[in-house]
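Q: Got a minute? One more chain.
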Amino acid sequence: MLAKFIFGKPLVVTYGYDYSHFAQIEGRPVLALLLKLVVRLVLAAADRVFVTDPKNLYLKRSVYLPNGVDPDKFKPGGKCRPNLVLSVGRLALQKNYRSLIRAVSRSVLASKIKLTIIGEGSQRHKLLKSAKKLRVNLSIIKPLPHQELVSWYQKSAVFVLPSKIEGNPKALLEAMSCGCACLTAGFTGNVIDDQKTGLVGLEKLDQLLLNPKLGQNLGRQAREAVINRYNIKSLINQEIELLKQCIK
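A: Always. Here it is, folded:
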């Protein structure tokens, strides 16, 4: 903002999700209030606002520009491991991993499921404790480079994103691009089209685990959606053109 007011430069911002709501979920009410004020000021001053959720197009000077992935790097391959349930993300309250652990514990295949979460954060100890209490086989792995992440997506039976709130989740797009059977919680901005590119609702975990063919069909359609709508190469070109318009 300083560059805009001091040097007259165009201000372009990306608005991914409700940052204030995120802080509330994390139990930080003062930060939530501060973020609400800051976001209002920044959006009011912006010459262009890139939104990753079309529902935010009501904002002034906004244009829809979602996150993207490279489908040539994130692609299907390898052999699927039955009953391997994967999630990727920060170990934070907002990610809602306790609900995922509970969903696994209620599965008819609970004793056979290997739940793996790739990420780190403040909730690690609590999640491991919760999994032990519910007799869920949980492994938590530190964040991995993209090359190694791909193989995990490829071999998972189901990829799950249990978040309460998201913007345009990169991990979900990566999993879709790899042709994963994807399962998510219901949240604003979800890129999964229920019953078409994945399933929405953690209670549907067994539908994917017990019916691999369903997961394969949904995974194929998920990859097609990424190629058609979330290909990083075409999105970069769009962003370049939009930025050029701002400096004319």
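A: The CA atoms of residues 76 and 178 lie 4 Å apart.
Q: Perfect, thanks.
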